[in-house]
Amino acid sequence: MSSDSARALLIVEDDLALQKQIKWSVDKFESVTANDRDSAMVQLRRHSPAVVTMDLGLPPDQDGVTEGFKLLEQILTVEPDTKVIVLTGQNDQANALRAVALGAYDFFAKPFEPELLNLTIERAFRMFELQKENRRLQSMYQPDALAGLVTRDPEMLRVCRTIEKVANTTATVMLLGESGTGKEVLARGLHQTSSRKNEKFVAINCAAIPENLLESELFGYEKGAFTGAAKTTLGKIELANGGTLMLDEIGDLPFSLQAKLLRFIQERTIERVGGRQEIPVDVRIVCATHQDLKALSKESRFREDLYYRLAEIVINIPPLRSRKGDAALLAYSFVRRFAREQNRGSLNLSEESVRAIERHPWPGNIRELENCIKRAVIMADSNQILPEDVGLESPDLEIGDSSLDLRAVRDNAEKNAIISALGRVNGNIVKAAELLGVSRPTLYDLMYRLGLK
Ligand SMILES: Nc1ncnc2c1ncn2[C@@H]1O[C@H](COP(=O)(O)OP(=O)(O)OP(=O)(O)O)[C@@H](O)[C@H]1O
C-alpha cells in the first residue's frame, strides 16, 4: 500500500472466530471489523475503507444472502469507489456472480486460502489507488478555460500551455490533428482563455457545406442577391465580430473562396454577396484540419499565401493512441459523466475493459471513445462495464505479470473448459452444463461474465 492509502480494510464477518482468522491472516493491512450490516455501515462512515471483505450471510439472515446484498448495495451507494470482495460458500457461484454484477470488485469462496485472499485484497487496494490517482490528475492539470479537456499526456499538456500562451495575442492559430482529437475543444478553450471570451465563438465546417452555399454562409448576402435571398443575412464572419471564428476543415475550402478569405484576412473587411459596401470585421481566426496543407499547397490545391497567413502559430494535436495513459483516463471520466446523465449510480469499468481500452488504437480518437463509452453505459447490465459492453475484445492473458494473476488464470481456465464443453455437445447448453457439473443458469452467468455470450 502506498502511504496515502492508510485507508483501512473493513472485514465484515459475523462468525467471530472466522473474523479473527481473517484479520490475522491479512495482518499486513490495517483492518477494522464489523459483524452485521449496521456496524459495517458505522465503520464505513468512520473509516472510509478502500477495501471491504464481507460475508453474504449476515444476521439476522445468517443462512441466506439478503442482509449481505443489502449491505453491498448500501456500501456502493455511500462510497461507490470502495472495492468490495464478497466471501461466499464453496458452491455459491451464482451469488458470487450476482454480487459482481451489483458492483462488487471480486468474490472469494470459503474456506479461503490466505495467500490468495491477500493477493486479491492487494489488487483491490491497487485498483482503488489507481482510480483515485486518475481523478487527482484529472482535476490537477486543468486551467479553467480548458476544464472539459481530460489529459495527462505530456505532449497534450504542452499543447494546452501553448493555447494559453497564444490566447491573448492576435496570432492566427492553426490546429492540426486527426478527426476527433479535440480540435474544436481546443479552439473553444483558446477563445475562453482570451480577452474575447465574453463575445461569440462561431464555428463553421468548410467540408460540410456545399461549395455554392459556402460563400454566403461565410460572408453573408444582401437582400435580392440571388433567387431566394428574401432578406439581408449576416455570414459567420460577421456574426463572430468581436469574438473568435473557427474555420474547421480549412483544407476543404474551395480554391475560389480561398482568395476571398485571404483578402478578408489582409484587409479585415468583408463584402456580403450581392453587396458593394466594405464592412470592417474584427475576428480572431482559428483554423483546423486533418489534412496536410503544405502538401495541398504543393499540389496547388491550397494557396500558399493563404497557408502562411493562417499558419502563424501551428499546433499539432497528437492522436489518442500516442497519448500515454489518456485512453483509460478519458474512459473513466466519460463513464462518470454518462452514468450521471443516465442515472446509472455507481458504474465502473472492469479491469478487462480498461485493458481492452488501453490496447485499442482508437482511429476515431476521443470521439470514438466517447461514443463507445456512451453506448457501454447504456448497454451494461450490471454495475461493471465489461469489454463486450464497450464492443471490444476481451484482452487475452498476458505472458509475464498477469500470468501470475490467479483470477485471470482461473477465468481463462473456465473459459477454455466452457468452450471445449460447448464444442463437444454442439452448443447444447443443457448438455454442456451437465458435462461441466454446473447448473444451466450458472453456465449462462459464467458465459456472460467471461464474454462468451
Ligand atoms: N481531451 C478531451 N477531454 C474530454 N473530451 C474531449 C477531449 N478531446 C475531445 N473531446 C471530446 O471528443 C469529441 C470530439 O472532439 P472535437 O469535436 O473537438 O474533435 P475535432 O478534432 O474537432 O474533430 P473533427 O476533426 O472530426 O471535427 C467532442 O465530444 C469533445 O467534447
From TrEMBL:
PROSITE patterns: RESPONSE_REGULATORY, SIGMA54_INTERACT_1, SIGMA54_INTERACT_2, SIGMA54_INTERACT_3, SIGMA54_INTERACT_4
Keywords tagged on the record: ATP-binding, DNA-binding, Nucleotide-binding, Phosphoprotein, Transcription, Transcription regulation
Cross-referenced InterPro entries: AAA+_ATPase, AAA_lid_NorR, CheY-like_superfamily, Homeodomain-like_sf, HTH_Fis, P-loop_NTPase, PEP-CTERM_resp_reg, Sig_transdc_resp-reg_receiver
Record-annotated Response regulatory domain positions: 8-125
Domain Sigma-54 factor interaction: 149-378
Positions of modified residues (4-aspartylphosphate): 55
Pfam family, one: Sigma54_activat
Residues of the signal peptide: none
NCBIfam families: PEP_resp_reg
PANTHER family: ALGINATE BIOSYNTHESIS TRANSCRIPTIONAL REGULATORY PROTEIN ALGB, TRANSCRIPTIONAL REGULATORY PROTEIN
Protein name from the UniProt record: Two-component system NtrC family response regulator
Source organism: Rhodoferax ferrireducens
